[in-house]
Amino acid sequence: MPTSVNVAVVYYSSTGTVSTIAKAIAGDADEAGAHVRLRKTAELAPQAAIDSNPAWAAHAKATAGIPEVSPDDLVWADAVIFGTPTRYGNVTAQLKQFLDTLGGLWQSGDLADKVYSGFTASSTAHGGQESTLLALYNTIHHFGGILVAPGYTDPSKFVDGNPYGTSHVSGQGDVPVGEETLTAARVQARRVVKFARAVKAGLAAEN
Q1: Are 63 and 19 in contact (CB under 8 A)?
Q2: Could you report the per-residue pLDDT of 24-51, keeping only the tens digit for each?
Q3: Which candidate, 92, 94, 84, places its Cα nearest to that of 117?
């Protein structure tokens, strides 16, 4: 019987692109046999800013029922897949705020020896996707985590072209997530589950 694994998909999304990818990755991880928690980070923007953008306001209302992430979700997880839009080549403040609350778990070693991966979206093809994921992955190194990026491990990766993680070019929010991105999400989710299962089984065998 395959080793049971827990996967937390933790994301921030304003107008819905990253949320769509997060839901796809969560579904793909579930289909790969993982127990999955889909969690969003807390919103930091003022309500006036949200209300000024109809797409942002609509997405906030549509995803109101998705639980906000807590540190306990990372303790529970064997693998964590983080999602964030790019903000000037870096992660969003909302995701960074959550990461900054994890000092206690880092000190206790509860973030180490887990599998981590990430995904992102930007307005343009050169809008910071790679630097955003690399910035995120710097945090994983500090955790003592095991980074599992998709690489070019599937023929489809030579189509979407991003070995760092699933990414999408959204334009001004007018380019919906399509099959190319969803395929990348599927490859990444299955790879994360595969290696989380292997790492967990290997650690158990050593103990």
Answers
A1: yes
A2: 999 999 999 999 999 999 999 999 999 9
A3: 84
